[in-house]
Amino acid sequence: MRSDFLAWLEEHQGRQYALHTDHINPVFVKMLRTIDFDRGYVRGQGCYLWDGEGNKYLDLLTGWGVFALGRNHPTIKAVLRQLIDAEFPNLVRMDCSLLSGLVAEALTKHASGGLSRVFFNNSGAESVEAAIKFARCATGRQKIVFCDHAFHGLTTGALALNGADFFRERFGNLLPGTEKIPFNDLGALEKALSDRAAAAFIVEPVQGKTCEVVHDGFLGDAQRLCRKFGTLLAVDEVQSGLGRTGRWFCYQHWPEVEPDIVCVSKALSGGYVPVGATLTRPAIMDAVFNSMERCVVHSNTFGQNDLAMAAALASLYVIEEQRLVENAAAMGAYAMERLKPIAGSSPFVSGVRGKGLMFGLDFARPTSSGKLKLAWDMLHRMNYGLFGQMIIIPLLQKHRILTQVAGYHTEVIKFLPPLIITREDLDWFLNALQEVLADLQRFPGSAWDTVFGLAKRVAKA
Question: Which terminal Cβ of the chain has fewer Cβ within 10 Å, N or C?
């Protein structure tokens, strides 16, 4: 490597897929090439990506929500450059960082219900791991109750709370003492808590893998049951938090809800430095760190590093200064207003759901047209789960819009636009989606030829 790093890097452009095949994950590369997603992006700015040929794409994946403020936000970039140039004394272990204190102050200002303490970590999964440990320590109990279809991360403890068997299978015994209940099922929750053995009930207000939203009143009733049986209410806001749903935290759509623990990450990074946080009440934190001997009984190496804290502080500032919570509420309402009639015109769309700028389409076998039923059945016999690619692939190939299905073996496509998105960019997406959904109703037709060809390539691969 030479001192001119960018020039050196440019010499290696185009090698990424070969390098990943040789050294990282060859199956992932095979998947990208099979569905024609190996575009070789070379630049990102705001809501957009550009490939090596100069083509501009609208990014509705946002790194699974990491780029909520868009890519390479100038304010966050400027803050990080200043910090690097200042040569601060980073991670002095026997001291307290001013930066992390300021982030904690700013975060808790936007939370409600006495969430005044913060533990910093490096990801959403780590924030969930901390929630598990804190709840068990504070209550003296072991059981953690979670929901079907939930996604809380892929580390061992968080994986034990995963509602999909696909992610859990083949990894052996996971965290003991967990119990799964149906999402939005208050009766099942009461039954799971009634033995007074549950340390916490953890729930996503909008499920990351389905975009299913908690029913109005569910979180308030869940909180009532948790308090009745001595269980802590933990809300996973890793995707839904920090403005995405039109409130700083999604649980704030229901003012009566005051969770005991809240997990955040993704948007807090500003798209630059991994960072996560677990917000909780003083009594819970004090139960964990209950003596000088135990003042670091839960810890990590990089959780309060200066770059992560500066990125988080700048991100919170940008969300406030640019009124991105309000923009998410307005643009989310506009998207849903247009999306519902577009979806209603397609016999394949069974539901539109979500909140703010976190929304998705659910697909199902048509109930009317015989030809379309036949096409659906033929495709699903060949490869279950490929139907979503009939929407994803043309959105990318014809309209240069990047998105993806919500999870493996699902019929849901999820959209996570940046919080800075404009009505013009939403129209780009919505008009393209309308065209793609209309193409699906032509069978036989080019859209079906494409996906049947894909199914054969997948089987061969």
Answer: N
Domain 43-65+324-460: homologous superfamily in CATH: Aspartate Aminotransferase, domain 1 (3.90.1150.10)
Residues 161, 180: Cα–Cα separation, whole Å: 8
74-321 has the same fold as 43-65+324-460: no
Q: Are 209 and 149 in contact (CB under 8 A)?
A: yes
Which segments of 135-240 are extended strands (E)?
A: 143-147, 178-181, 198-203, 232-236
CA 190 to chain centre: 28
> In this model, does residue 241 exceed pLDDT 70?
yes
- Report how many helices (DSSP H) and strands (DSSP E) the chain contains, helices first: 18, 15
Question: What pLDDT is recorded for position 246?
Answer: 98
The full set of domain ranges for the chain reads: 1-34, 43-65+324-460, 74-321
SS3 content of the chain, % helix, strand, coil (to 5): 45, 15, 40
Rounded Cα–Cα distance for residues 418 and 60 (Å): 7
| Residue 252, SS3 per DSSP | helix
Please write the tens of the pLDDT for every residue from 3-59: 899 999 999 999 999 999 999 999 999 989 988 899 999 999 999 999 999 999 999
Domain 74-321 has CATH 3.40.190.10: no
DSSP letter for 215, please: P
Roughly how many angstroms between the first and final C-alpha of the chain, as a whole number? 36
Nearest to 87 by CA among 410, 251, 343, 306: 306
CA distances 250 to 239, 329, 434, Å, are: 10, 11, 29
Using alpha carbons, select from 50, 157, 121 the residue that is nearest to residue 402.
Answer: 50
- Amino acid identity of residue 404, one-letter, is Q
Helix H segments across 251-305? 282-288
How far is Cα 408 from Cα 400, in angstroms, rounded to an integer? 23
The strand pairing partners of 97, in sequence order, are: none
State the pTM of this model.
0.95
Residue keyed to tokens 């501009």 = 56
